[in-house]
Specification:
The chain has about 425 residues and is α/β, with parallel strands linked by helices. About 35% of the residues lie in helices and about 20% in strands.
Length: about 425
Amino acid sequence: MSKRRVVITGLGAVTPLGLTVPDSWQAVWEGVCGIGPITQYDAAGKKVTLAAEVKGFDPTRYFTPMEAKHMGRFTQLALAAAKEALADSAIVPEGLDLDRCGVIVSSGIGGQAITEMECLKGAEQNWNRVSPYYIPTAICNMAAGQIAIHAGFRGMCSCPVTACAGGTNAVGDAFRYIRDGYADCMLCGGTESSITPLSVGGFTSMKALSQAKDPSRASIPFDKERSGFVMGEGAGILLLEELDHALARNAKIYAEFVGYGASCDAYHMTAPRPDGSGGAKAMAMALADGGVALEAVDYINAHGTSTPLNDAGETAAVKTVFGPHARRLLISSTKSMTGHMLGAAGAVEAIFTALALRDGFVPATINYQVPDEACDLDVAPNQGRKVPLAYALSNSLGFGGHNASILLKKWEGGQ
């Protein structure tokens, strides 16, 4: 039986670069750095003082005051992005089989700020005055649940919690769900908002975060002087559709989703396998899933976190999979601009990858200065490139050894 084809017909994003997809993508074209001093709490005197915050997000533009009050920031960001994706797709509930429309949205940490606030309040009041809204606003799956409520999608609603791979797992799982015949439409992606004292403090203690004070030298993937990632926040939501379903309503199509691979290092809680074999397996699985020759791939949106282990391991993984073709690939890390949005990262990067294919544009790895012999592939340093692209991969690798890779194809009308 032939597999059903899946396309991307709607995009929505709230990122450190902009409050919409067009604004965020324009910033990517311009090589804007979204990193700056932390404003969500007083970081004075702390080791880490920089983050990639979403700027100027006003919940009242999207929600009533009561709705906003009963949503964590991570849910607000996700639902704002979902509303943009739905509007962008021009899909309408009338005529849809809502039982065949679902939601898969990841969050790695959920309502961390709410947990910290309620913990302090509860401890002060002998745990008798914890908010009754604490649990339903803080749990990781609530962004997915709220999106389903808003859209009226009654199919499967799920939340993969696979750390930094979550956003890619969400879109990959949604792709398979449509391709295998269980749904016609899926809203999918990831969201995160955990720039908080405890969260940043925890990542700082495990030496995962950059302690740089200069935003231009903080998130520097593949640079020899990289010293850790920069915490980011935001949300990315995509509407995936079965091809005939999309064509029947004359939908705008951004790209075709053709392959997905997921694996586990089964190695260490936080460190990837040094040879990158887990990530290599995920990429190879995505290529095999799509039936695409490795020589057909032109671009990889790398996980590229700016940590010493990740960037060297991912470079090794690309070489393992692509062999001599690795030298002809363009690779870049948009985390140099957005920081690391954890559970939202893979979803936003899937959006950027789809747009890269549409526009024939490879984003730069900005602020790159010092080459590293362990990261010696073409990482599109400092300047984006206008080049024809046919196929592109997007990689995500998460604590716990989670690896995920998706393969997208440029859409040519009528193909």
